[in-house]
Amino acid sequence: MRPLTDEETRIFFEKLSKYIGNNIKHLLSRPDGVYCFRLLKDRVYYMSENLMKHASSVPRKNLLSCGTCFGKFTKGKQFRLHITALDYLVPYAPFKVWLKPSAEQQFLYGHHVVKSGLGRITEATSQYQGVVVLSMADLPLGFGVAAKSTAECRHADPMSIVCFHQADVGEYLRHEAELV
């Protein structure tokens, strides 16, 4: 387990800022202590500094995971955000999409969100902005990328895609072996 390099930190924070903007600082300095991001086997983990100190006593080859996995770096050094980061993205996400109950199941199966399934969208959401997807009861379902801006969504065709699927809580069942 090691700290992220400058290049890895830049790539990781750029991806994270698409979803939570400048609120990354709230993840690192929390009221309950100081938290950090560490890299282990191409995966980025979020943990308290206290937990990091305890984990440093375990040999790297024996350590499977430590903290919450936020995602992983691909072979091409791109960062892919995992669904396990959803609980930390939701409180700080400025842009959100709410789904109608009829569209929730389709999103949880990995499909994009169409206009007919859109319940609400945060005002001033721009095109290709990272959004957190919620049910109408404010239950976090996943996250995605806005395919259309808020203004374009108002005049869109009911079957046009308004949010591209990135990750959803259904992945816990579909890809449980890969999330470790």
TrEMBL record:
PROSITE patterns: PUA
Pfam family, one: pre-PUA_NIP7
Superkingdom of this protein's organism: Eukaryota
Keywords carried by this UniProt record: Nucleus, Ribosome biogenesis, RNA-binding
UniProt KW Amino-acid biosynthesis keyword: no
Gene Ontology MF terms: RNA binding
UniProt key word Cell wall biogenesis/degradation: no
GO-annotated biological processes: ribosome assembly
Subcellular location: Nucleus, Nucleolus
Oligomeric form and interacting partners: Interacts with pre-ribosome complex.
The protein's role, per its UniProt record: Required for proper 34S pre-rRNA processing and 60S ribosome subunit assembly.
Protein name listed in UniProt: 60S ribosome subunit biogenesis protein NIP7 homolog
Annotated organism of origin: Cyprideis torosa
